[in-house]
Design goal:
With about 350 residues, the chain is of the alpha/beta class. About 25% of the residues lie in helices and about 25% in strands. The mean pLDDT is about 95.
Amino acid sequence: MFLCHGYASLSATAPLEPFRFDRRDLGPTDVRIAIDYCGVCHSDLHVARNDWQDTMYPFVPGHEIVGRVTEVGSGVSKFKVGDMAGVGTRVESCRTCNSCRRGLEQFCEVGAISTYNSFDKHTGAKTYGGYSEYIVVDEDFVLILPANLDPAAIAPLLCAGITTYSPLMHWKVGSGQKVGIVGLGGLGHMAVKFAHALGAHVALFTTSPSKREDAMRLGADEVIVSNNPSEFIAHRDSFDFILDTVAVDHDVNAYIELLKLDGTMTQIGAPKGPLAVDALKLMSRRRSFAGSQVGGIAETQEMLDFCGKHSIAADIEIIKIQEIEHAFSRMLKSDVKYRFVIDMASLKE
């Protein structure tokens, strides 16, 4: 075991503060990564505040991790010391269930091991995330980064990126389709970029007309103001696919009505409570309302390669770790374009 410094939440009402803990020693297939950047995900805040009622304190957030390999186990073949590498939301799974064999580790039937707030498969200790100096992860759950992109802007791809890329791939979004993206935040801005790169006609739904210019810059073909009923009427029965990134309670049925025959709306924003879905609106046009989360390791690597090929990265604002509580407050107000990333060098200040 070796000592690691980070920032942790000690209770649901306590601000994050400096925290020291142990990382495990390297096993034969482990990679040790010195963390340069860590994205700030809304899930970090949800878990820190125990919004999902499952937080184990002390809690070290962070699952959008980018850094440099400093040590490798004797059996590691994919990485060498000095390589840039990434770690996303999962650090292990059972590897033997049907989901894992299909490359869907996020749906591991035994239970995938999360980067934080989970239990380490090797030691049984709690897993701690990337708001810290180092992390030790089996090489099969470590990702190769595109060399042509800013490492800081890659970090959010490891959650926000794959969370939006995966459903677009699963529902085969592509050229000739009309695709709606609900919300222009950390998830939504990535969804717009991906759907545009895939050749779809992209419409952004937002309650803020002021976001029109930015949405068009990111790749939207049109912007629909969500609280303007006349704009909704004009688009009824016209969408092949809608991706909903909104993480608060809202009327999903208004969007379901916009789907054409056999269209699908997929929810990736995670509100605290259940959403009310009108079954008749689904039945009337054989529409589907679905859910999705992050992708597996292979798909995450595919997404990173896609980003490198198309020069896609997150729009970010760099912060110091000492500013994390202020960043959380701003994130709740949607006051960021569009993802905070922590420069972990600030941990030493």
